[in-house]
Amino acid sequence: MRKGVRILPFLDGGVQEGGRRAGTENMPAIVGLGKAAELARLNMTSRIENVSYLRSRLLTGLPNKFDHVVVTGHPRNRLPRHASFCVEFIEGKAMLMLSNSRRVAVTSGSPCTSRALKASHVPIAMGLPHALAQGSLLLSFGLENTSADVDYVLEVLPPIVDRLRQMSPLYAKFRKAGKGGH
Predict the structure, then answer these.
(1) CA Rg, the chain, in Å?
(2) Phi, psi of 78, deg, nearest 5
(3) Domain segments of the chain: what residues?
(4) Residue 140 carries which DSSP code?
(5) Using CA atoms, how far apart are residues 54 and 83, in angstroms rounded to an integer?
(6) Looking at residue 107, what DSSP letter applies?
(7) How far is Cα 172 from Cα 79, in angstroms, rounded to an integer?
(8) Active-site residue among 112, 117, 148, 177?
(9) Which of 9, 57, 62, 123 has the highest Cβ tally under 10 A?
């Protein structure tokens, strides 16, 4: 902070934090965080390998289940547990609701924009067309996830995509133009 700038303390009390905030550091929490980091580091490599395998299995399996899906992000240089893709002709929010009803936890954008009814800024910044970015879906993998979970998503998602495409005016227009579809 620049010298001479006066601020009001966040909490009144002692001067431990230079008069900006009263209070004492939460030592048990600080020690606990250190121990948690130590434990996380022990099996980090095997955990990364496991979630990377599950993520890759999902992302390579999706195009075999339905057409017009675009995997977003770099094929290898990406977060190990993050799977993101866009499904053409349908909205991510609709896929989200139907997926969640089948006990598949997904999101269609970052949490900070979850209430906005617009395409995520991330696929748009990646150069994807707005209409395709509307169909963004994200899944994250954790320690508890298994290959059976990936199989379940690959089983559940295609009928959801098919159902939503049957209601999609964009997909109807695409099919009418004779560009494909089933």
Answers:
(1) 23
(2) -150, 165
(3) 69-176
(4) E
(5) 9
(6) B
(7) 35
(8) 112
(9) 123
**Residue found under tokens 């022990």:** 42
Answer whether 84's CB lies under 8 Å from 110's CB: no
Q: Print pLDDT tens along the chain (182 aa).
A: 788 888 887 777 766 667 677 777 889 999 999 999 999 899 899 999 999 999 999 999 999 999 999 999 988 899 999 999 999 999 999 999 999 999 999 998 755 555 555 677 888 888 888 889 899 999 999 999 999 999 999 999 999 999 999 999 999 999 999 866 54
Which pTM was predicted? 0.77
DSSP for 31-57 reads: HHHHHHHHHHHHTHHHHHHHHHHHHHH
CATH superfamily of the domain spanning 69-176: Aspartate Aminotransferase, domain 1 (3.90.1150.10)
Answer yes or no: 86 catalytic: no
